[in-house]
Amino acid sequence: MLNHKLYWGDLHSHCAISYGHGTVEQAIARAAQQLDFCSVTGHAFWPDMPTDREQYGDIIDYHNVGFSTLAGNWDKLIQLQKEGSKDNKFLALPSYEWHSMKYGDHNLYVPGPDMDLCDQPDLPMLREMMAKAGGFAIPHHIGYAAGYRGINWKHFKEDVSPFVEIFSLHGCSCDEYSPYPMLHDMGPRDWGSTAEAGWSMGHKFGIVGGTDHHAAYPGSHGDGRMGVFAESLTRESLFKAFKERRVYAATGDKIDARMYIDDAFVGDVIKNGGKRKVKIKVQSMDALDQVYVIKNGRIIKRIIPTTHSRCSSGKYRLRVYWGWGKNSERHDWNANLQLTNGCIEQVEPCFSGQAVVAPNTNGVNNHKEALLPHEIVSTDDKLCTWKSITSGNITMRHPTVQSVSMLIDSNIDGNVTLDVNGHKIEHKLEDLLHKGRSHYMRGWLSEAVRFGPLVPIEDCVAEMEFEDEPENDTDVYRLQVSQFNGQQAWLSPIWVER
User: Fold this and answer.
1) Tens digit of pLDDT per residue, the chain (498 long)?
2) Is the pTM of this model over 0.85?
């Protein structure tokens, strides 16, 4: 397993190819900026759609229009995702969404690049169809109550559903105490539909994140992503890793989180009736808050990493944010950041689209229709240049702020200089250590930038080894990670049988 690489993707995003905003071309171009793979998903079928037009007429109409639109554009969607794919560079996988009140919503996937658009009247027949096609049927926004488009664990089978989606713009469905409650008009989270409830019933499945974004922005930072450990970036390798449950969920930051039990890795089922050797290793993109080892739904180890340390390695994470200002105004950004007395080793874009989880949502701005509203233009070991289009935050709970995260190797006495929109801003790195600094472009109520805090790489690492004893006939171990900036990751379990 040590030879497998970590790849990042979003298998659940939408655009106007069925219903939503933006184009397939925009979605693929934006995904390729910060992901290894994606799927632009079409809304396709709803066999048990409500029929009460007096109460649900608008829902019935826009879904039927969306389904018809996808059917007319299906060949185009398949072709564009073919054209946007190249092994070991970037892959766009075909998919479509099958809604159900009784069974919960499922996204259907095959390795591709081709896929037929076919309906089935119920979940057993859907599973049979996907098994014959060598594909998967993946439940999502599972946390809504059974019968209300949440998962119904009584009907769940692992044959073509090796994992489920537990985080998206809808919220988090991992367990009762997960952050990010369900706020959509589809209702609250129900414990009986959480992943923890499914594991407690004996089901074996992995977990992933996906944006369920409806404005052509797969991988929109903070809205849901998945990590997958695969041998290579090919369709065959990805689907092999999917089947083996070598997957996990994250909000946005690419948190590299790994857990081993004896010789087993994420997604494995092993037998050990004695002591188990548990090994944890986490490399985050910002200061770690806590790392939890969870066994059978209970926290058994809480790792609290060293924070606010002095750096001994000379390596730091530095994040630069831009945005704010009035949400009725468009703000164009042209920026270049220069580092002295050091080296920029990595630049990671943390770009997001408008938080749209349903069509015709207020707050979708026309300037977001640019092919790439945010773009890193160039980087080298001293300089990073980017351009961007933003507007102010929609509300105090709906950010539109963008950022880049850099790994730098530098003396703490070095300087960082940002030239942005005619302003020159300079800081000593030491002045940013564990401290964020803000700068306004045109005075109060105007757009702004924020530097930092500068985080020593030691604050982004957690490692632990310990031994554990059996508890049940089958013990379910999993890992959960949180950073101080609010970014989270949830690993798929390892199952240990006596």
Assistant:
1) 457 899 999 999 999 999 999 999 999 999 999 999 999 999 999 999 999 999 999 999 999 999 999 999 999 999 999 999 999 999 999 999 999 999 999 999 999 999 999 999 999 999 999 999 999 999 999 999 999 999 999 999 999 999 999 999 999 999 999 999 999 999 999 999 999 999 999 999 999 999 999 999 999 999 999 999 999 999 999 999 999 999 999 999 999 999 999 999 999 999 999 999 999 999 999 999 999 999 999 999 999 887 766 777 789 999 999 999 998 999 999 999 999 989 999 999 999 998 787 766 444 544 457 899 999 999 999 999 999 999 999 888 889 999 999 999 998 989 999 999 999 999 999 999 999 999 999 999 999 999 999 999 999 999 999 999 999 999 999 999 999 999 999 999 999 999
2) yes
461-468: strand order across its sheet: 256-261, 276-283, 461-468
The two structure tokens encoding residue 168: 């998206």
User: Same domain for 127 and 235?
Assistant: yes
Those residues whose C-beta lies under 8 Å from the C-beta of residue 115, and which sit 6 or more positions away, are 78, 94, 95, 96, 133, 135
Ordered DSSP codes for 142-157: TTSPBTTTB--GGG--
Whether 470 is in a domain gets the answer no
Q: Which of 486, 217, 192, 163 is nearest to 351 (CA)?
A: 217
> Could you give the residue ranges of the DSSP H alpha helices within 17-97?
24-34, 53-83
Q: What angle do CA 436, 364, 351 make, to 5 degrees?
A: 40
Mark whether 196 and 322 lie in a shared domain.
Answer: no
With beta carbons less than 8 A apart as the criterion, state whether 140 and 168 touch.
yes
Q: What CA–CA distance (Å, rounded) separates 475 from 38?
A: 33
350 contact partners, CB below 8 Å, separation of at least 6:
34, 221, 252, 253, 319, 402, 403, 404, 405
Q: Write the DSSP string, 423-441.
A: EEEEEEHHHHBT--EEEES
User: How many C-beta neighbours within 10 Å does residue 478 have?
Assistant: 26
Q: What are 358's two structure tokens?
A: 């349903």
Domain that holds residue 62: 5-252
Q: In the chain, how many domains are there? A: 2
Compute the residue count for the chain. 498
CB 303 within 8 A of CB 462: yes
Q: Which two tokens stand for residue 426?
A: 């300079």
Indicate if 47 and 187 belong to the same structural domain.
Answer: yes
Check whether residue 62 and residue 201 sit in a common domain.
yes
